[in-house]
Write a structure and sequence with these properties.
Blueprint lengths: L4 E7 L8 E5 L2 E7 L5 E5 L13 E3 L2 E3 L6 E2 L5 E3 L20 E4 L2 E6 L22 E9 L3 H7 L6 H4 L17 E3 L3 E8 L19 E8 L3 E8 L4 E11 L5 E9 L8 H21 L18 H15 L22
């Protein structure tokens, strides 16, 4: 797992003045929204006796530990130790280091690492979000799989005819034409045309039986984000699926996805869109969870071919991050004592 990136970890709408527990990178965090509306992120462990702060409350903008009532402000500073009275001296070690937080695209982003702001990889753009010409819905999906396998699955053109034969894949047309990978410093994308099977259900009312190729672009943003762009009906209908594949730990990944569409923009189509998106994940799930080794290995340890260019591009950037020394040490068992917040300012 990697540090020194912004991780889109939760929905902004889910964070209020009540504490919210978050599992990420084998560690536990607590999120809450202060009186100024800003989201605070702290380690979910009271420095006193290790109680989960997410089980506490927020009172007058301060996070209150449920065990002994210690109070912490949005900057992680301990404000009070009730057992010692209002004039108690607060030990320096009682303070917590906050994590930098941003809110973009309806998501809460945590920066986990020690790079100064000017050197941090950026939060990727999502210009369609908030644009009234696009309809947005969201959902989530839990995998018993390493996040690298989940990310690579989202970048794999060649699996669609087989894994998704009952939805959008066409087993009669499995060929993937050669494609070019466009690499950025922290991202990659590629374009291909896929031949879809005849439409079914609601889609049969709007798409011809002999469908033109679906223009498809897949992309990733380090370390765990994927984006899928689809152009249907000759480009008249467009769809984007933006996914943050959250590494809960080495064995579980939570995908929080946002699907945006330029068509069927009424709420009446949301249930169908959500169901179809969920069905795609269900088709992928047994395959991704069966992969061994659990995490994507070094490319030399598996056989790769030219249609694997996108997953290989992701592995290349992933390896470069490890070579930079951005590998995150394993979290301490159970207590999770290791903090990856920067030192207090």
């Amino acid at each position: 797992m990697l540090k020194n990136f912004w991780y889109a970890c939760h929905r902004s709408a889910a964070i209020s003045s009540s504490p919210v527990a978050l599992e990420l990178l084998g560690r536990r965090f607590v999120l809450f929204r202060g009186p100024d509306g800003r989201v605070t992120a702290l380690d979910d462990r009271c420095p006193h006796r290790g109680a989960a702060l997410s089980r506490g409350t927020v009172e007058a903008g301060a996070l209150v530990c449920p065990y002994h009532g210690w109070r912490f402000d949005g900057g992680g500073r301990c404000l009070a130790i009730p057992a010692h009275g209002s004039d108690a001296k607060i030990p320096e070690r009682a303070h917590l280091s906050p994590y930098d937080v941003e809110e973009r695209h309806g998501l809460v982003w945590l920066f986990l690492g020690d790079l100064p702001p000017a050197e941090r990889p950026p939060i990727p753009p999502l210009p369609e979000y908030g644009d009234p010409s696009w309809r947005a819905i969201d959902g989530e999906f839990l995998w018993q799989a390493h996040y690298t396998r989940v990310v690579e699955n989202g970048l794999d053109f060649a699996h669609a005819p087989f894994v998704h034969r009952n939805s959008f894949g066409n087993p009669a047309r499995p060929r993937v034409d050669d494609y070019k990978v466009e690499l950025g410093e922290w991202s990659g994308s590629a374009y291909a045309e896929l031949v879809a099977p005849p439409p079914g259900g609601l889609w049969s009312l709007f798409l011809p039986k002999d469908r033109p190729p679906v223009k498809t672009r897949v992309g990733f943003f380090m370390p765990n984000l994927t984006r899928l762009d689809l152009e249907l009906a000759g480009g008249k209908m467009k769809m984007v699926i933006f996914s943050t594949n959250i590494p809960i730990d080495e064995h579980r990944t939570l995908t929080r996805w946002t699907m945006l569409r330029s068509f069927f923009k009424g709420a009446w189509a949301d249930a169908n869109s959500r169901s179809r998106t969920h069905q795609i994940f269900l088709e992928d799930q047994p395959i991704v969870e069966s992969q061994r080794p659990h995490a994507a290995p070094d490319p030399a340890d598996e056989i790769s071919v030219k249609s694997d260019a996108m997953p290989l591009a992701f592995r290349k950037l992933h390896r470069q991050c490890h070579e930079r020394g951005w590998t995150l040490p394993p979290a301490a068992p159970e207590l999770q004592l290791f903090s990856i917040a920067p030192p207090p300012r």
